[in-house]
Structures are given as structure tokens and as C-alpha cells.
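Minutes, project check-in
Item: structure for the 226-residue chain
Input as provided by the requester:
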Amino acid sequence: MKLPFFRRYGHAPGALTPEDQVVDQFRVTLAAVRDPQPWTPGHSQDIAVRVGPFIERAHPRPGDDHGPEMIAVALVHPDTPHAAAYRHGRQLGYADRGWLRCETTAILGLWQPAYAMLTHAAANLPLPDDVGMGPAHYGVHAEARRADGTGYVLLRLGPYTQTWLASRDADRLNTELEGRAALVIPGFTVTAKDAVFHVSDHDRYADPHGADVTALLADAIAGVSA
């Protein structure tokens, strides 16, 4: 069977013209969108996430990228880690956003260089103020530790919008435990500290807002002692 002969429109066969290169790049990008590389939780690999009609590169927070519903990410310029990309990224709002809560349904797949032309940076547009992801805030962990340092997290509180709020509640719990931290659970010392709010484990946190955090701690201790 004789196969049809295709020629690039307007050009003789041979070296690629700039127009041909753009067309070929578009084809590669389209193929990457149609057949994304699957993302596997817990591997700390850069991912492609949807931000409105655009696709952006996101770097998962190590240790906080295993949740089936939500993970923590930072949006980065597609040409990261080059210095020029860092400067351009600051101009377009990629920097200083911190860690964000990313629903896994917004993940297209693993990041591929072919996606770069679909980013805000490629269009020289700033990221919108609302990228559809809230900040991955802070938490408080009340920990029960043995003398050898082993133990477990007794209570998780969060998220807090600011570090000082988390520190305030950690201090409140430690004041409540003062003088009896080593007595409430035999063999363990219970202390509270402010910590990163682990988005992947968000369902294991108790909401501190409007709650009596000392009562939440008492309930957690009672649950262990029962």
C-alpha cells in the first residue's frame, strides 16, 4: 500500500524552520496532556497541577505528599532551578507563597518539560491571587515520649494560620501539664510543641478554633488511659 506523503505546510522537506519547531513543540505538549505520566504519592517528585486554564509545576513538601486526598506543594517557575527562572518567578508571583494545600484531583501527573508552554510564566502572566489552594498552615503536636526518646503523637491540633497562634496553644498545653507531664501517662512524658501542619494527615487533626484545647488534651489522655 502506498503511504501518503506529508510535507510541512509552506516549506520543503529538510531542516526545521522556527514555525515547524513551534508546531512540533505543540504536538509534544498535546501528547503529554493527553497521556500524562502517572503520579504516585510519597515519591517527592515534581508534579503538574491545574491552576485555572493553565498547568503549573509544583514541588511537593517532603514527607507531606502521601495523602490520598490532599498534599502540600509549592508552586515553582517551570525553569527552576535556574537563577533567571528564580528572578522571573518572583516577578510573576511564584515565590513567597509558601506551602499550599493541593487537592490530588488537581494533579495532572508528573511534571514534564513539555508542560512549560502551558504555564502563566510562558504567557508572561502573573499567577492569580487565588490559585485554588489554601496555605498549608501550622499545627501543634502533643507528644508522649519515653526516656529513650521513642513514643508517639498523642494529639494533633490544626491548622493554625500563623505560627504565634500555634505557639500560644502549645504554651497553654504545657502550662496545663506543668508539674505532671511525666505522670499523666505512666512511662511517658507528655509535652506540646508547635509543628508543621501535615496536610496529608489532615483528617488526624482536631480543629482548635473555638475549642478548649486543654479539654481536647484531657480527652486524648483519657482515651489512652482507659
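Outcome recorded: Residues 1-11 have pLDDT under 50 and may be disordered.
No further action items on this chain.
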